[in-house]
Description:
Blueprint: H1 2-9, H2 28-36, E1 41-46, E2 49-52, H3 65-69, E3 78-83, E4 86-92, E5 106-109, H4 110-113, H5 119-136, E6 148-151, E7 156-159, E8 167-168, E9 173-182, E10 185-190, E11 202-205, H6 212-224, E12 228-239, E13 244-253, E14 267-272, H7 273-281, H8 293-304
Parallel strand pairs: 1-4, 9-13
Antiparallel strand pairs: 1-2, 2-5, 3-4, 6-7, 7-8, 9-10, 9-11, 10-14, 12-13
Amino acid sequence: MIQNLEKSAHNTFVGRGLEREHNRRKDAGWLADKMKDETSFFIPVRQSKVLVGEGEVPAPVFFSPAQFLVHKKTDSALFLGEAEGRAYFAVVLEEKEFESFKGFGGFKDLRAIAPLLSQEEGAILAYAQALSYWHTRNRFCGLCGAPNQIGEGGHCLTCSNAQCGALRFPRTDPAIIVLIRHGEKCLLGRQQIWPPGMYSVLAGFVEPGESIEAAVAREIFEEAGVGVKNIRYHSSQPWPFPCSLMLGFTADAENDSITLGDEELEDARWFSRSELRQAVEARAVKLPTPVSISYRLIEEWLKDGSE
């Protein structure tokens, strides 16, 4: 387990430095004090994008309470946690509020700027983006339609209708992502919507009532018609695009016969290490973004081989 924890710690958007203060965030008075504390930081989130300064090396823009209150009230701030005594909050911006932040930089897709961030910065921004997304999709009660009220620093929503009072908590969609081996080859596939030449390991969402191992076997068979064995957990990665948790695995194929089955993939093929290296060097094949766990699974497989 410790080994897996260390593996996950190297994945982009994984951080250890933030204490989420599960019990303290239930204290409204404590949260109010933290929102006024000038050492606290506020992180604006716009349509799942984060604010980045326009310097030579783009850096995330964090605001103190005094700086932020000039542009927006902090009463709807979402508490993320503390690091070295400093509290971090995410704030979802409304459409009309974007203009007042233009002078500080631009709102960028987190995936694009992640390679330029420190591990902890990336983790905090991914957390901010995921929690913000959940709030934008749950403003009203799904049972009676009344507005929801924020509780526990944004980690709980309560229906404002006293006769309903339904509670909701942040949700994450678990998804498996798997590097399949057969001898000295690995299985990669591509979707039609991807950039030309891009191939990646296979992935899919865990369905209700399903174990993650069963999801691995089902998804690989549905997409490529390949049975698998020796399923082994590798590591995990938060993937807030919009709200997934990627559960990385390796597995061995029972045979090398490929039958595309569920229209998810337009192509799937086996690559030896030398074939894949040559295809990437020739730009005939593109690998996933280096910030993804899919890239890391492929990278480790390439390094571990005897070819």
